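S1.2 Input.
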Amino acid sequence: MTQSLMSNRLLVVDDDPALGRLIKTFAESAGFEVFATKSPVAFAEKARVWCPTVLMLDLGMPGTDGIQLLRGLASDRCPGHVILMSGADDKVMEAATQLGRARGLKMSGILQKPVQPAKLRKLLAQFQVAKALLSADLASAIATDQLFLEYQLKLDCHVARMTGVEALVRWRHPTLGIIPPDQFIPLAQETDLIHKLTDWVVVAAAKQMAAWHLHNPALQMAVNVSAKDVQDLHLPDRLHKHCRNAGVDCAAVTLELTETGAMREALQMMDVLTRLRLKGFKLSIDDFGTGFSSLVQLQNMPFSEVKIDRSFVMQMMDNEGCNAIVEIVIDLARKLGLRCVAEGVEDETTLHRLMILGCDAAQGYHLSRPVASDRIPAFISDYQLMRGVYKTPKPSLPSPFTNARAWRRRKALPRPSTESPTFAPLSAAGVS
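S1.3 Output.
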């Protein structure tokens, strides 16, 4: 089961593996889940996808130093507490702390080298989170509107237009700050708050969608639901009521369920999923490719969409295996009459490749980060102005299945510029 902020996650980077092992040992004994590395690249990637509670980084690493890592964490809006480690003098440490704080990071401590175990324990104890306390906090958050939604845009690859958004719930905790969904949703599932949380998200998303539809009636909305939600026989009626009360057509709403959850207790879920489709909702299998679903179940269950997991999409241009999986899923979806969405699109080259392969839609940081609702209309307009008149790419890139030698030659060529006029990244418009 996915761990969360409630399980206390610690991410460590230091070029001394022995120190990393020491910190890992002490932190795990204090109840932390720990990932320690000496690679700045691995640290930055893990910080982006793992959402650690606490990050400890060495300022004086060779190659990529701690200041550069702080800059990257700030760019990714990392919500974790940052602890600096170094043998540098106090003035350097204070300057680095002030720099991180000015960039919006939670600079929460300094650990001088050589590291003293007693001080390490005391520092980590400040950030341990009690699950029972946060469970009560989450119940209160749902009741008192501490929750809010951000939205990540989806690109229709066939017409190069932003035609949909995915609603992503956040928690503005009064003392811990902004908590992203993958850090508190597991807690909601464990404590049976998930049904109330899902209802809150659908009500808020439907109200926002109704407001957008006054000017953009074609905009689609995706909302995540959990496997536990889909075990509730009353879910279809409840969600239909929420949309009806907001004046939103259920056909404009896609409910996303992870592959692992979708294929569990298939008979019970078939009842709920079929009734959701009858009421007009679209259904999407999220994170496809990471579970062990049966193709028979995929064919028989009433899904309308498949989302390719980001782990394959992000590596497809450098890993022939990932590229092959993406090709297969797109082809499978097309043959089963399902819409195919790729998530985790991080650069223009990947987007171009997905368009050529015939993927229906794409989302990822290259296209849009999650943003507040009031930024969505301008975001869509700016994107259309930048893209202008779009024509589907004609030249087909060689497939590793049909021409492995040509594939290797293409990989050896210089990558096309991400600043090309046809596919300029959206950040160029000043939107991030």
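S1.4 Remarks. The longest strand covers residues 161-173.
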